[in-house]
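Table S2 (continued). Query chain:
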Amino acid sequence: MEVQSSSNNGGHSSFSSLRVYLNSLSATPSRLSRRAISVSTSSDEMSHVRAVSGEQMRRTLRWYDLIGLGIGGMVGAGVFVTTGRASRLDAGPSIVVSYAIAGLCALLSAFCYTEFAVHLPVAGGAFSYIRITFGEFPAFFTGANLIMDYVMSNAAVSRSFTAYLGTAFGISTSKWRFVVSGLPKGFNEIDPVAVLVVLVITVIICCSTRESSKVNMIMTAFHIAFIFFVIVMGFIKGDSKNLSSPANPEHPSGFFPFGAAGVFNGAAMVYLSYIGYDAVSTMAEEVENPVKDIPVGVSGSVAIVTVLYCLMAVSMSMLLPYDMIDPEAPFSAAFRGSNGWEWVTKVVGIGASFGILTSLLVAMLGQARYMCVIGRSRVVPFWFAKIHPKTSTPVNASTFLGIFTAALALFTDLNVLLNLVSIGTLFVFYMVANALIFRRYVPVGPTKPWPTLCFLTLFSITSLVFTLIWKLVPEGKPKAFMLGASAVVAIAIVLIFQCVVPQARKPELWGVPFMPWTPCVSIFLNIFLLGSLDAPSYVRFGFFSGLIVLVYLLYGVHASSDAEANGSFGVKDGQVMKELTEV
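Corresponding output:
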């Protein structure tokens, strides 16, 4: 039976009628075997795949825009909470060392993004990077999970904006929200302020990326000013004795009260405060000079944020002994009980509100560009890939995701939206580091990638073993021995790979230094952090992953095959056309 034509695809379509679609499902195994690990090329991504969007995004961003977007994306309200929790429970005053270690690790991970973004300056970020290395389905799986995390996190952050705004003005959160008794608990607190914030930001990012960057610059400048104010207040009111002396003499004392383990546990917790720089890589298509601007923008933003975080950590540690720090609101609580200093609490609320707005704006810019490029690949409707001719922005993707985020933010409680820890983001960081090693060490053409794939598998397993030992084995000499043995094995695996497998290609423009050690550190770190997440996070990850697989099997692989047959990915494939006409 001949497949009917579709105006959208410009040729054959598996979705032209219900009968054709049902018949197309019978071809799922063959299409899956051909498309699931089909690898795109850099030239394809930069040419006809990019041309699917019609209009081109304007190259209007410079390195300082990227630094502003990176800072805005990373320094949200979470740092006001994470710092206190990690200091009180894990590191004590040495939390500043934890932030320095986490910042170094974030920089190494950012290097992986930077090399890809310079070589492939398109809006797809990690989705495009994985698509040109591991193939279509791994790219869709990671990209779709990341978008879901973006949407849920943005909905949760927008609702927290209401709470911080209430703190700034001394108004209870209950007065900003109203309860609908007919709805189940967790879905019955309506938050119109959160919806308004999301919709306003959606309009801003639809109008112009350049104007969005200017708005972000202004809000980020205010936010940093408030952070510096809090830092200065901490140094003025604080006492250096608190860096070594707890309030309760029975508690461990010194700058490292919990030893090296506490420092690294604290680093694992505060590393999540650095999440956000990945959204900057999705702006690569709109950067004037990607080779020069992207490395400076991404690396510079991570370095600046590391300095800010370390200063905040020192300031907080001087304000109170670590065993008196409020893990939920360390800065606000430190000033709340002091005569004449209560007004600082409102300043913290205002600063956190600006942080929420900047992180929302950058995250919503990023999620729309991910959806746009996934639309270009046709595994979701290519309506999402359209670029508006006047604004040169992905208006369709921005609007759809903005409305979806606003709907969640309207009635869904923070506990239902889960925590702001993004398992999808850490998983994508892990995949990008693996993709970089694969791309560097596997030659183009009909070569066997097994040596590199075996190395990546063995190193990941060793990192997982180290993580499980760290989390599950009780303290003592056996644990130290097992951790040391795991570390030696991991290092040996990297050394053997480095000596046996030569690099197949070296970047001409900008490359990650110290290959393959730099991405290996990123791989290890992300596995270590994934091991620290709670069980509900994995339940949600498994649920959404199942939905993503279903979407790919029921829609994505068929739409992708249609696009391949119709020449949307380059030259029309006669064999695919024959298969489609026989469906």
